[in-house]
Amino acid sequence: MNIIKTDIDGVLIVEPRVFGDARGYFFESFNARDFMQQTGIDIHFVQDNESRSCHGVVRGLHFQIPPYAQSKLVRVVEGRVLDVAVDIREGSPTYGHHVAVELSAENKRQFFLPKGFAHGFAVLSDVAVFQYKCDEYYHPEAEGAIAWDDPTLAIDWKLNPSDVILSDKDRHHPNFNNFKTPFTKA
Prior knowledge:
1 helix, 6-stranded antiparallel β-sheet, mainly beta, 4% helix, globular
């Protein structure tokens, strides 16, 4: 695998080695030993999730509050999304900054987000199937979120705002300036 560092410490793009021939392709989507050797991160994933969404869906910006915070490794197995990580670690030099990366079935890239980041994605293709590995179980009482369209964050979701499709819950999250983070930079 090829590990690409981003502008925010700890947020990584992972490019797997893909072996293809006339039959199709094969790749390891995750190998704990190789990930540890290349990143220094010893992680144990406990839950895999999958969602299917249509064009224009934005999911996010979500996180889980400590002690149930989650690191995630995300990827797209069908379609194309813009995936976004927002640094919400108070005291971080990149607090309030974000990294956005296009993930697709074609590029097979993955995105690693450590604890302390809000996460969201926008579906750019007709349909997208999105998978993510988490190192902590989901706890509904620990849900946290920030408004996807926060003007301070100024995320370009690559969608016309009038085409965005949100859940009822995602319509009512606080703006970044009205948000008290539960995370601090270690």
